[in-house]
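Hey L., structure's done. Input below.
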Amino acid sequence: MDPRFIRNFSIIAHIDHGKSTLADQLLLKSGTITQREFRQQILDDLDIERERGITVKARSVTINWTHQGDVYELNLIDTPGHVDFHYEVNRSLTACESALLLIDAFQGVQAQTVANAYAAIEANLEIIPVVNKIDLPVTRIDDVLEETENILGLDATDALQVSAKAGLNIESVFDAIIMRTPGPSGNPDDPLKALVFDSKYDNYRGVITYIRVFDGRVRKGDKIRFMREQIACEILEIGQFRPGMTPCDELGAGQVGYILTGVKELSKVTVGDTVTHDDKPVTSPLPGYQKPKQMVFCGMFPIDATDFENLRDELSKLAMNDSSFSFLPETSDALGFGFRCGFLGMLHMEIIQQRLEGEQNMDLIQTAPNVTYEILTRDGTTMVIDNPEDVPDPGIINEFREPLAKVTFIVPAKHVGTIMQLCQDRRGVYRTTEFLGTQRTQLTYELPLSEIVYDMYDKLKSVTSGYGTMDYEIIGFQAADLVKMDILVKGVKVDALSTIVHRSNAERRGRALVKRLKGEITKHQFEIALQAAIGTRVIARETISALRKNVTAKCYGGDISRKRKLLQKQKEGKKRMKQFGEVEIPQKAFLSVLESNKED
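Output:
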């Protein structure tokens, strides 16, 4: 294919602004799919994506469109909108020359709109503003165009106005892509240089590698080399997504598609790697990507210990299809053998858990999530901690550091005071305020990541009646007065309930947690003491009273000593049970750490 007739573009937007719906309409209008094949979210092929109406993985599809008698090949990469999957957006933008920036005709510019627009600007892409949902009964199109110019600094005079749901003005999107997107600059006659922008694992065919060819051309049967891993292999199949996997003869400069090489281990195909010919390699690889860094960790343990190997296999498959997910084996005194899993954020964690439970029918106990910490010891070494159990003795800690995030809120002006109070309660440091017109305000705060990931998004939506949005980025680590809080059940420390908290919040969190645990743990035949402790100092306590059976119920009349004898016998039995009895802790109790934080 002549590079002059190729256009590579991406769709970026805030969550729920209609990216997947617009992608569906582009496929339908171009004839890539028929009306019979058409269904909502056709590119979202994970069950969890269709259930929740969100995009988790970036998708690629090739569309043909005729413009002024010439047939153009348009390569679309649909991207997620949620902040947890921002790394997917950055990967997609690297493979494109332009981006459709979708903006809701009523909600206007939101926090993720700003973040995605800046990511596209940094990648030197041509940005095409598109105002979507113009068929809504209430719209603010003029205000939205003004926000696009004032907040994003983009020229809104040529902004497109469409309705992806109703299929209005979709043809203008095709024309804008062809007219305003620069063609790829690669040379088909140069040595092969292609970027691996994604990969997934197929149980029958091995690793499917998604590539964007920058220079040269690649054919079926060619012997290629992955430059980073230095693996040489033969191409067994080459093709494009239309939208299913459709084999073709070759991919030339500027084209996007997939290759099958028979490689069975996804770890050997690195996202961001450069593909070149084995006999005529290029001298320097493409820049690639930074490896995504997990910031939220939790333990996952099978309820039935015999499912441990099964859980390992399922986690391995998920890690194969998601390079941002990691797991390592760990042992808990309370829960047995399991895995310490790393995620990009809470939504990422929730989706992995739901996929394990829904698609694989796994019964899991999941411990409360925590973020990554740094500890500077007295001998000058820096430890990275993602499990409270790994916190060393306080005597050797010189500095305890927590991750700090720069958070941008876009909220209705009337809710500014509430948001500022919310941030202040969570140890936030105020930075800036900008007014986006008369009705909306942009606030910037620096907040500890641990105060954001649990329920900040839920609180924000609650206090702003659903109109507030937020975006955050990690800016580093800062020293803080942090302590490890242990939970003791009947005098025994339960490692899976340990958390790292700020000293100023420790007592309040401790009281909230033991109170919640009291409601989750059922009564036993003996009294159970629940304690929250920092080191050897107990900071909160609740007691679950013993189940009482009336042993004198059938003792009618007679001397009082008969009743005393029965009561004394019961007392001795309870004492013996208390000494040897095990406390059953239900699954829900391990998430009460999270619930107590939300109540805070």
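Residues 483-599 form a domain with the Alpha-Beta Plaits fold (CATH 3.30.70.2570). Residues 560-580 form the longest helix (21 residues).

-- N.
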